[in-house]
Amino acid sequence: MDNTERMITVGVGDLKITQAPHVLKTLLGSCIGVVLHDPINKIGGLLHVMLPRKSGNDLKITKYANTGLPYFIYQMVTHTGASRGSLYAKIFGGAKMFETNGLFNIGESNELEVRQILKKEGIRIAASRTGGVKGYNILFDTETGDVTCRVFGESVIVY
Amino acid sequence: MNITQDRLKILEIMSSLSIDRASRALSKSLRTGARISLSKISIADFGETTEKMNEDQREMISVMVNFKGNEGCKLLFMLPLEGSLILTDLFLRQRIGTSKECDVFTESAIQELGNILASHISNALVSDFNAQLIPQPPQVHNDYAGVIFTNLVLEQGMIDDKLLLIETIFEISGTELECYLFLVPEMNSFVKLLDSIGVKT
């Protein structure tokens, strides 16, 4: 399997779960990218959270932290064979992409909601890089659990 | 989001006419051939479209214009940072290759391009179809292509899993500029506009 075949891109509000040797990648602005990794079974997933809370009935549940994140955990444990006890999370993104004049800051609200849900679900956040005003480019290696993150205009850091 | 194929076809004609007018105006400003042609108008899946755009991880400079009035719409033009230098040279009537780095001139050139595109597209829709579109000041951003595109469609994605997307092919003669130009009309207001001009099917 070459590098291109290993790469899986995740769209906004989408969820992808895979296993080693695949690498999940996405770009984030005000959205939050949540990765969950089971290092024993080398299973990992990436949820691209667009908004904190779902309000309508007809929209895709993975767009929202309050519906997407519990669904993500459920899928990891019941459908892919990941061990819940060994799961840990890493979170990225949540930039302030728009001038909000002190009103609803999507990035900040997304991050807050994600942190609260992970805490409630008892999943440890092993690393995070959030905030700022520029986009994030992340690559999540399901083999190692490493997330290679590059904030626009900055150098690459591995988390 | 429901729209018939007939209505999409009419929107395609309206978009082609307005884009064509913007294309001619831009050619005049740049004093070189700028050709913008309609590539596709579709009801696109939000997740699939953003996934495709997230494949493009190049660093881009962009201008986004919001239109207010009876018909809501957004316009996004973006191109790679190195391409913006060529555009700056064209606007400043300099030999291509003169601009070496992105600076206030680059930002102004991109902003001006946004103004030209937005004003001519809205003028065409206003004069030919009685639309009411008022372009707001252009906003310049530089970031990854996928992040910029997400900013364009985020609001639409908050209310629907589909979006009405107009994609174009943008070429400037004598250059190999790779540019994106998207229009995202607000669906409901454009359905009303089609009603008002007698497109009922």
From TrEMBL, chain B:
Entries under Gene3D superfamilies matching the protein: CheC-like
Q: Name one Pfam family in it.
A: CheC
User: What's this protein's name?
Assistant: CheC-like protein domain-containing protein
SUPFAM superfamilies in UniProt: CheC-like
One biological process term in Gene Ontology: chemotaxis
Q: Which UniProt keywords apply?
A: Chemotaxis, Hydrolase
Species this chain originates from = Candidatus Brocadia sapporoensis
> What does the record give under GO molecular function?
hydrolase activity
